[in-house]
């Protein structure tokens, strides 16, 4: 049975729990959701509310306006493809490519977002053979959305990048394909079909992966990873991560709570390691102790997918093991109550959780983590 499990910050009632259900082996609890088919739901988590959708139905819950535990239920004109829980509003993307936003109020509605048309340099006005002007193209068809505390981003089918609603940049060529788009608090990271990574936004904490700490207004190629085919990316609050086709993990940006999986203090605790790592750092992960690693000398335990919250990072390895690092004040790393620490500054395996790396999903909120998995009450997933 597919379950929706949660751990972390819940002071505003953004998540409801099933009373009486036992914990999994790690510190997760099951969410009581109005959706009967959780394997098909779409979820996004903000600091003070959560957004959840199935089909055309949209549910918002948390501190929406004045009080915790506020709830809103809305219905879109078509099936919902993606959600992005921003600070001021929630972005809602339909399968038709239409983009809406929902202001965080108890009496609210889906409002159409009108994006600026991308510039078309060196293009004269097109006319028919009779001299009449041809019709202008329609509204942009949106394919990807992402939100942070201070950034809301969309990418259209024509590879136009928007800081909603303004068009920032348009990647040239029809062969360019966007595979993944992620946002931190103030920055965005994009992965294309060739395995190239682009970043933009506020980079003063090294989250852009560039050698110079500055703000980039438009997407820039992450040159430190150029030539390395990247398959997955993640954007945390002020840090970022990537996994290569070779199974290597890279992290960069702010490491104040060990969210990069890099030690905060040197041995002995007398000297502090650098807080900001502007360039991607290649990880030598601890050896996995799973049965696959003991039975095989292959890369069965190499990094597969990576996810990031405000100050924590989660990693699924190919064997299905879940590894965690970073801030854990609210239990967002999913540790048992007897293992609670302020932070982990090196990746550790989360005992009792084995995921299906292809189908199970992880959603990182700013201070929380959700698992959508075929998981039993012992903590292991059914394959």
Main structural class: mainly beta
Compute the separation of the termini in Å. 11 Å
* Low-pLDDT residue intervals, each spanning 5 or more residues: 19-23, 122-126, 132-136, 377-383
Largest sheet: 4 strands, antiparallel
List the helices and strands and how they pair.
Layout: E1 2-8, E2 29-30, E3 42-45, E4 49-54, E5 57-62, E6 70-75, E7 80-85, E8 89-94, E9 99-103, E10 111-112, E11 142-147, E12 152-156, E13 160-163, E14 166-170, E15 178-183, E16 187-192, E17 197-202, E18 215-221, E19 230-235, E20 239-244, E21 249-254, E22 276-282, H1 291-295, E23 303-308, E24 312-317, E25 321-327, E26 343-354, E27 361-365, E28 368-374
Antiparallel strand pairs: 1-2, 1-28, 3-4, 4-5, 5-6, 7-8, 8-9, 9-10, 11-12, 12-13, 13-14, 15-16, 16-17, 17-18, 19-20, 20-21, 21-22, 23-24, 24-25, 25-26, 27-28
Question: What does this protein look like?
Answer:
This protein is an all-beta fold and 383 residues long. Helices cover 1% and strands 43% of the residues. The chain contains 1 helix and 28 strands. It has one helix spanning 291-295, and strands at 2-8, 29-30, 42-45, 49-54, 57-62, 70-75, 80-85, 89-94, 99-103, 111-112, 142-147, 152-156, 160-163, 166-170, 178-183, 187-192, 197-202, 215-221, 230-235, 239-244, 249-254, 276-282, 303-308, 312-317, 321-327, 343-354, 361-365, 368-374. The protein has a 4-stranded antiparallel β-sheet with strand order 2-1-28-27, with no helix packed on it. It has a 4-stranded antiparallel β-sheet with strand order 3-4-5-6, with no helix packed on it. The longest helix is centred in the C-terminal third of the chain and has 5 residues, at 291-295. The protein is globular. 46% of the residues are buried. The model is unreliable at 19-23, 122-126, 132-136 and 377-383 (pLDDT under 50).
């Amino acid at each position: 049975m597919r379950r929706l499990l949660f751990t972390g910050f819940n002071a505003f009632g953004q998540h409801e729990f099933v009373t009486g259900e036992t914990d999994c082996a790690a510190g997760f609890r099951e969410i009581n959701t109005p959706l009967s088919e959780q394997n098909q739901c779409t979820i996004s988590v903000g600091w003070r509310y959560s957004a959840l959708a199935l089909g055309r139905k949209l549910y918002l819950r948390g501190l929406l306006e004045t009080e915790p535990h506020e709830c809103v239920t809305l219905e879109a004109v078509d099936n919902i493809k993606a959600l992005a829980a921003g600070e001021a509003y929630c972005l809602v993307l339909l399968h038709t490519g239409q983009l809406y936003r929902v202001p965080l109020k108890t009496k609210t509605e889906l409002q159409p977002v009108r994006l600026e048309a991308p510039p078309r340099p060196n293009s004269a006005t097109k006319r028919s053979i009779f001299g009449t002007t041809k019709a202008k193209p329609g509204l942009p068809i949106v394919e990807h959305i992402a939100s942070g505390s201070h950034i809301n981003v969309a990418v259209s089918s024509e590879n136009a990048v928007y800081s909603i609603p303004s068009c920032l940049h348009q990647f040239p060529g029809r062969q360019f394909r966007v595979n993944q788009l992620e946002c931190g608090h103030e920055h965005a990271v994009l992965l294309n079909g060739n395995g190239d990574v682009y970043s933009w936004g506020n980079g003063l904490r090294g989250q852009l992966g560039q050698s110079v700490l500055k703000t980039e207004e438009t997407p820039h190629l992450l040159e430190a990873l150029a030539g390395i085919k990247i398959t997955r990316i993640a954007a945390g609050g002020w840090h970022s991560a990537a996994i290569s086709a070779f199974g290597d993990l890279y992290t960069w940006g702010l490491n104040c709570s060990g969210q990069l999986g890099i030690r905060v203090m040197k041995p002995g605790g007398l000297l502090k390691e650098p807080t900001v790592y502007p360039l991607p750092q290649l990880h030598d992960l601890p050896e996995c102790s799973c049965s696959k690693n003991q039975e095989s000398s292959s890369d069965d335990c190499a990094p597969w997918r990576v996810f990031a919250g405000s100050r924590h990072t989660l990693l699924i390895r190919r064997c299905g093991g879940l590894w965690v690092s970073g801030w854990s004040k609210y239990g967002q790393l999913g540790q048992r109550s007897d293992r609670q620490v302020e932070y982990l500054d090196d990746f550790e395996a989360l005992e009792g959780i084995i995921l299906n790396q292809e189908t199970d999903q992880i959603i990182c909120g700013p201070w929380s983590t959700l698992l959508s998995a075929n998981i039993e009450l012992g903590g292991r997933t059914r394959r």
